[in-house]
Amino acid sequence: MAHRPGGLLAAKIHLKHISVVTTEGYADRPGGAQSVLMAEFGQEEQEHKMRVALNAFHNYQNGIRPAGPGASDLLDFFAFVDEQLDSSGAPNIKRSDQEVTNLLAKRAKALHLGPANYCWFLDPSKALCLKLAGAHARGATEPLIGMCDSARCPQATHHAGHRPVWAASAESKKVFIATIGRAQRTEKARLSTELARDERVLAEIDVQSGTGA
Ligand code: SF4
C-alpha cells in the first residue's frame, strides 16, 4: 500500500502510526525521510572513518605505529602515501589534510571499527571471521565484527585507543582464573590461553605506541 501514489499516508492512517517516518520504516520506502536519514548517517560514518584513518596516518608520521597482524600491511601503505606526498612537491611543505585524505580515501572506505581493533576489510578472502563462519558467510561483502578474532586476522590492527579494552579483558580473566577450582582444569587452560593472548596484544600495543609503563 505504502508504495502506491498517496499510499504512504493511507498506510500511516491504516497502521495508526503517529509519524509518517515510522510508516516509511515499515514499508522500506526508498527516497523517503528515513532514506535521507540513512544517507546522512552513512555520510557521517564515512567522515568518521576518514578521521580515524587520518589520525592513524598522522600517528605513523609521528612514530606511533599500529600493532596487530595487519600492522605491516598498513605500515607499507602509509609509507606509500608518504612517498606520494614527498614526490608531489617540496619536501618541507606541510601537506594539507585534503591531499592526504585523497590518498587515504580507499583505505578509509574499507575501515570497520571494532571495539578492540580496526578492521581494514580490503579482501574478504583474508577475513578470518568469514572463514570461521564458513558456508554461511560465502559471498559476504562485510566483515562479521561479532565474530572478530583480531589477534589472528591479517586485516586487523590494534592501536593505543584499544588498549583499555584489552587491559580490561586481561584483568577480568585474571579474576576468573583465580576463582576456578582444580576440577575445572579445561576451563582454566582455556582462559589462561586467552589471557596470554590479551597480554601479548597489550605488549605489542605498548611497544608500537609507546604506551608502556
Ligand atoms: S576477523 Fe575481525 S579484523 Fe578480520 S576481517 Fe573479520 S572483523 Fe575484520
Describe the structure in brief:
It is built from eight helices and three strands, in the order αααααββαβαα. The chain has 213 residues and is mainly alpha-helical. It folds into two domains: 31-158, no CATH class; 162-209.
Protein architecture, described:
With 213 residues, the chain is mainly α. It folds into 2 domains: 31-158, no CATH class; 162-209. It has helices at 7-15, 20-27, 33-61, 71-87, 97-109, 128-133, 163-179, 185-209; strands at residues 111-113, 118-120, 156-157. It has a 3-stranded antiparallel beta sheet with strand order 1-2-3. Strand 1 and strand 2 (118-120) form a beta hairpin. The termini are far apart. The mean pLDDT is 88. Iron/sulfur cluster binds next to helix 6. Iron/sulfur cluster is lined by residues 117, 119, 121, 127-129, 143, 145, 148-150, 153, 155-156.
Descriptors for this entry?
213 residues; mainly alpha; 3-stranded antiparallel β-sheet; 8 helices; 58% helix; globular; binds iron/sulfur cluster
Note the topology.
Layout: H1 7-15, H2 20-27, H3 33-61, H4 71-87, H5 97-109, E1 111-113, E2 118-120, H6 128-133, E3 156-157, H7 163-179, H8 185-209
Antiparallel strand pairs: 1-2, 2-3
The structure holds iron/sulfur cluster.
The site of iron/sulfur cluster (SF4) has 14 residues, from helix 6.
